[in-house]
Design a protein that fits this description.
Largest sheet of chain A: 10 strands, mixed
Number of helices of chain A: 7
Distance between the termini of chain A: 62 Å
Helix content of chain A: 25-40%
Radius of gyration of chain A: 24 Å
Largest interface: A-D, 60 and 59 residues
Order of helices and strands of chain A: HEEHEHEEEHEHEHHEE
Oligomer: homotetramer
Shape of chain A: elongated
Strand content of chain A: 35-45%
Chain lengths: ~270, ~270, ~270, ~270
């Protein structure tokens, strides 16, 4: 009925529309796929591995004269990992993607829940806690750069509330979001552990009564505003020479409000 | 190219596919539209009105012999409200929907943020707090029934943590979700206010230091488990003869864990 | 400063507040934990296993005379799985939970992304697709019951749009949500595969051009309203004698609207 | 029991902990509140007004020597708007915030659903469609800058699928996200309208059969990749001299995959 359809029926070879010339003369900075889930067997820098489920975003630049990219190749790249993933695999994937897509710049974000086994502070009962981790990889003309984002849940206890009240102090769950760039691979456990120790107290999945007493008192002895949390994390980061740049955010899901308190420090 | 397309071109009148006969002999309990946003000027039972943005779900039953419903009519029903909405308008809308869709049963859910102006407990500073409200309407053979859902954020303070610790007590934001059925229109402010008073303390958008001292101490003096919260709300509800049935849930976004504590009571 | 605190300091044994008597005489239907993430090695009925990340909700009833439950024991139950999970493990977990919590009724929901490897229809290229699966377990006085929820994404193509248009037809991603109760363990792959075949066409992660041609034409040849989808799934389910009851919902994220079309059939 | 608590009881004036000196010597780029909902009566540049519900984020910088900011003042700023909001009010709010918080830099994001009334293309039936809009305001040493984000849902129809298939073509809902900076106030309706016309077809809440035929055929005649959409929006933006810079993203919620296709163009 349409010329297009008739052509399609008549021609045995299926045309590759994406390869046509584009005349708009506009470079596309990023084109690719978003929000595809895939299981990975993640290897941390210290060699430890864990199975988890990752969400991948992959993109490359597209030259002005090309009409489109080949989306299915991005999915093939993910499957070719055979589930193995870590910082080394991310760097290799970036290079392989540029070759496969014939591009100059590439971007890969891989986000997944990461689990650490922790001992409760008094009872020493083990349980595992989840953290949201994202590895961001970029490649420009063969040079790769890796950024890490970790979202670390902690307790924060309000210094003002403690100071002005005859007893008690409001406290709440907070998210500390750290983004760091480093040329050396970073151990997720150490990065998370460092951030986690800057809240008023750490979280645990399993706490016995002796632990609950301990962490209640610890948080009360260690009050922190969102401002304190981001500064204390920033102070720790400034001691680590491998860190090229960072931003640290704290968001308190205030127990006394229906909104959040928020602070952010960015490295100079 | 296809018979269908040729027919479409040849026939001036556009066929109504939904009106065709269906031979599968399966009644559909609900068919309609979901997640459509529309501004409303909501009128509470006490006459007070407020502008807000609602998300509507509308559905009717579909007899076994009919192939499909007419989706665009649901959207027309929402527009015919002219933005006016409340319990009375919901009851009328249910009836109008049955007529328009030629159905026997109808279901409408309307969900929106609802704002109440509150005075801080000591400074008396005014600010407004948001609550998520849903009105659920059903109609079966001309008889309408209305259910209300209110999600009320409060502070909860852990009795165990307070009891076993030398000082302090973990506390957090909690959501109390109340669903009630009533044949009489209920005042949202009274319903929310009753629920809100069953937490360890209420939330406020604006608190001065004198208020923060007050509510910190109030929560500490008024510790409650999720179990206590749902029981205390249930006790209050059992005194209200207009309530036909209810469920009450409490979810604490625990400040010491990365998961929630949860409890639910359902009326008998 | 407070009597509570002094007592806590003076008494070596830490009191178990949850074990106190409650005088409100209100039974709690459900008390437990919500939204805790944990890695699992899921075993399907056919013996195949896959690593994934699950979100657990666990709850039991609480007798009227008890003040509270012991939340940390729920987390211990999850850890005692040692990551092994499937229908058999869910049934055992329900029983173990009742014993551990000294309760009569128990409820466990376990939700996780589940992956199936699929071959593209023409090129036969393999890739994996994710589905959201939830196993719901209940136990009442020793009797367990299992429900399955699978959310299956498919393509739906509008019969009306095809019929009335000279060419083309609007289509979109749809979610088919099936809930089934069965006394016999059900194979997830077969359940998902059955549902998936009732859309206008299945989805795939990787499609080559020959596949894209195939599925475009297949969807065009196989138009379905949400009403058709739920009826066709219901017809298939009615042939399976192991299914005790079911509900099936279809939600089309309409490509021509900013809202969804929706239908639901519930077994009698 | 603690010195803090005794002091609090003994001292009638409540200390302002936030005003204490901080010795860590770390500037905080942003400190404030996040995710607070408030009703607004939004005025577009063309004078038209509509009631909606906004989510506000407000933040200022904090000098290295100050321990904390005064969070309650941000909430007061929102209430002092008396619900009136638009680009002019945003600029005033930025200035007022700097004075009130004694800061040099300020950041305000206000996000809300925005409704436009549209006529269906053939039947001319009116209905309203919702778009997510965010106004971003920044102020640095008295100079304000405003950015606009609009998320515009459209239909996209795949050129490759159309070309290679004998009939039909896969299409889906897409989100076009445009961010623009301008020193002159921009009319939201014109901005949204321009973006909306770059999809394969616009969306509408209400479509009669004659409209559905029209838009099905229009989308089929107007196939676009994500790459085409971002380029076509970029071309239009380059003609508007008021636009200082922009980024445009397109995300197709692919009807044939369970992931998205994505493209982004950023102005030079």
């Amino acid at each position: 009925m349409t010329t297009v359809a008739n052509t399609a029926i008549a021609t045995p070879a299926i045309e590759d529309v994406q390869n046509r010339l584009d005349t708009r003369q506009i470079v596309i900075q990023k084109v690719g796929i978003k929000s595809i889930k895939h299981p990975i067997y993640f290897q941390n820098v210290d060699g430890h591995k864990q199975h988890t489920i990752a969400t991948f975003d992959l993109a490359v630049n597209l030259a002005a004269h090309l009409k489109g990219t080949h989306m299915s190749r991005f999915v093939e790249l993910i499957h070719e990992l055979n589930g193995q993933f870590g910082v080394v695999e991310l760097q290799n994937l970036l290079k392989k993607m540029l070759t496969k897509m014939q591009a100059e710049q590439g971007y890969i974000d891989v986000s997944f829940p990461y689990f650490r086994t922790k001992q409760a502070p008094v009872s020493q009962v083990s349980s595992s806690l989840d953290y949201q981790v994202t590895l961001h990889g970029e490649i420009h003309h063969g040079i790769t750069a890796i950024q890490y984002t970790v979202v670390v849940p902690v307790t924060s206890l309000c210094p003002c509330s403690k100071e002005i009240s005859a007893y008690g102090a409001h406290n709440q769950r907070s998210h500390i979001t750290l983004k760091v760039a480093s040329q050396q691979p970073l151990c997720l456990d150490k990065l998370i552990g460092m951030v986690e120790s800057q809240g008023s107290c750490e979280l645990y999945a399993t706490l016995k009564r002796s632990d609950e007493k301990y962490i209640t008192e610890k948080a009360y002895e260690n009050p922190k505003f969102v401002e304190d949390i981001v500064r204390d994390v920033a102070l720790e980061l400034s001691k680590d020479l491998r860190i090229l740049s960072f931003s640290v955010e704290a968001e308190n899901f205030e127990s006394i409000h229906n909104h959040s308190a928020y602070a952010k420090v960015v490295s100079e």
